[in-house]
Design goal:
With 289 residues, the chain is mostly beta strands. The chain folds into two domains: 38 residues, no CATH class; 245 residues, Jelly Rolls, CATH 2.60.120. The longest helix has 13 residues.
């Protein structure tokens, strides 16, 4: 009901529907009144309808340097207008303090992120889950050299030797190379050192850089991952040859929403100053709605 109210408050047609329901006791279907149905099995959600980050559900990402050309900072995350807003800016002064390479320093990005895990040691989990259906409605910006991401991180991703079954980073969507219309999903396991393994899917059935919001989702079962954009499957991983014949993660992950930058992703446009990744909602169901 919260989402319905957000979308229809002040709409005379919606008010008349409510009056009709109250007076007649007749409940119409979602298609009859153009209201999205409420699904069962919801185990986590945030509609970002407030004015501050809900710390019972999220914390800020640690203020770490990321990918050799960006830094997460607390002041780059806000909630307003029904959105989680992750701001990112060019920050050559910060870059100069991080790198002696002039090009890297000039293209350094100050950004932010949130996660369902505490920001500081001992990094307690706020929300973590394994099998289910994860979705977020996001408007991604287009800025060469940067990318936004909706992903699930495993506290045990560094465990080596069990083929990802005991910890896998699951990138539901990353907007790497967004300036040429690309985006992808990816999986990472066996840590991030010499044993690191990964595989990715890059089919793009939907144009997501049209200035509108799009829904990105993951269906995660004990036997497979299915990745969606606007309800269209764009990658399916069943533990077979397209996953290097290894297993599906069987352990809980926590949620992350972030913006990052890297030298390998290309130079930031000369005229870039700042932009935002906007998240309308995040929802997790025990099964696909």
């Amino acid at each position: 009901m919260k989402r319905i109210i957000k979308d229809f408050t002040g709409n005379a047609h919606f008010i008349n529907i409510l009056k009709l329901i109250i007076l007649t006791g007749v409940f119409m279907t979602a298609s009859q009144c153009s209201i999205a149905p409420v699904y069962e099995g919801l185990i986590f959600n945030d509609e970002f309808d407030g004015t501050t980050l809900d710390r019972t559900k999220w914390d800020l990402c640690p203020q770490w340097d990321r990918q050799g050309r960006s830094s997460w900072r607390d002041d780059m995350v806000s909630v307003s207008g029904g959105n989680l807003r992750i701001r990112f800016t060019r920050d050559p002064a910060l870059g100069s303090s991080k790198s002696n390479n002039t090009s890297i320093a000039e293209n350094w990005i100050r950004s932010g992120g949130v996660r369902t895990r505490k920001q500081n040691p001992p990094y307690d989990l706020i929300f973590a889950n394994s099998f289910g259906y994860y979705e977020a409605r996001i408007k991604f910006p287009v800025v060469r050299g940067t990318w936004g991401a909706f992903w699930l991180q495993s506290p045990t991703v560094s465990t080596i030797g069990n083929g990802g079954r005991d910890g896998t980073e699951i990138d539901i969507v990353e907007t790497i190379r967004n300036h040429i219309g690309e985006y992808n999903a990816a999986l990472h396991w066996d840590g991030y050192g010499e044993h690191h393994q990964s595989v990715g899917g890059s089919e793009r059935p939907v144009e997501i850089y049209d200035g509108d919001y799009h829904i990105f989702a993951l269906e995660w079962t004990p036997a497979e991952y299915i990745f969606y954009v606007d309800d269209i499957v764009f990658w399916r991983v069943d533990g077979g040859s397209n996953f290097k014949n290894v297993g599906i993660n069987q352990t809980p992950n926590y949620i992350k929403l972030t913006v990052e930058s890297a030298d390998w992703a290309g130079e930031i446009p000369q005229d870039f100053t700042e932009d935002y990744m906007l998240v309308d909602y995040v929802r997790v169901y025990s099964r696909k709605p």
